[in-house]
Amino acid sequence: MVEKLFxxxxxxxxxxxxxxxxxxxxxxxxxxKKANEIRVHFCKNSFDLCTIVNGxxxxxxxDCKFCAQSSFYPTSSEVYSMLSAEELLESxxxxxxxxxxxxxxxxxxxxxxKNEMQEIAKSYQKIADEVDIKLCASHGLLDEEDFALLKKSxxxxxxxxxxxxxxFFPNICTKHSYDDKIRSIRAAQKVGLxxxxxxxxxxxxxxxxxxxxxxxxRELGVTSIPINILxxxxxxxxxxxxxxxxxxIQKMVAIYRFIHPTAAIRLAGGRALxxxxxxxxxxxxxxxxxxxxxxxxxxxxxxxDVQMIEELGFELKIV
Length: 319
Prior knowledge:
Layout: H1 2-10, H2 17-23, H3 28-43, E1 46-56, H4 85-96, E2 102-107, H5 114-130, E3 134-138, H6 144-152, E4 155-159, H7 178-190, E5 194-196, E6 199-201, H8 207-220, E7 224-229, H9 246-259, E8 264-267, E9 288-291, H10 302-311, E10 315-316
Helix pairs in contact: 1-3, 3-9, 4-5, 5-6, 8-9
């Protein structure tokens, strides 16, 4: 089955949800090998490295059960208002000097207010004028007017995770819906923004839920897929979730490559939980990563990541 579906993908055809589910029963090592061959064929050895900065933290009105920044849960997450344009500019320069391709400002809350949108747009414009780095944004459930403002200010890609499958999503959050997310993604696409969207594994969802999310992302035409591994945070409802095994993660990343042969499959939050910081997963179909510090958990240091990426034979995309 692996060889049959491998050939199908290599010939430019799409595998079906039924076929993807069949791959769950196949050998992980063989899947990883074939997924890596698919990655090399369609994406070459190009590696997409990005970083995120927590531009506004905590006191979030939403009740996402994995998140330390939700106002519903007693966590030790920092709370602060929007960082200044100068602070965001310096952070962008720091990352550009270390050959990071993309820089994203992420803010807590359901969405930024219209006044905050004006403020953050000025920060993006300042960065775009002074730093040679690709700009991404993650500011919640915005509308078409907001996305047009971001694009005008130099942003090229918008991030909005689906988090999981449509069926499992109500177990994660009740303050907004799956359709709210999809409407926002479609509005961003309408003004010409690229989309970065993925989810979190280890929330209690099934393997079938992870596959369902992959096909939803394919339907949306998403080309950058961040994969987060849950790092249980004390005070959140998921603090005692059992961790996924390395094999589960490796197999699912490989299957995602079969479903998304040309995408940037990006290891994101929780990578530090993986053996060797995810080295084996980057040989199983993944070809992108978030580096530096994450939002409320510690990420991977840029220099260490660059060294590993080069050791694996990848070539960093540079602006």
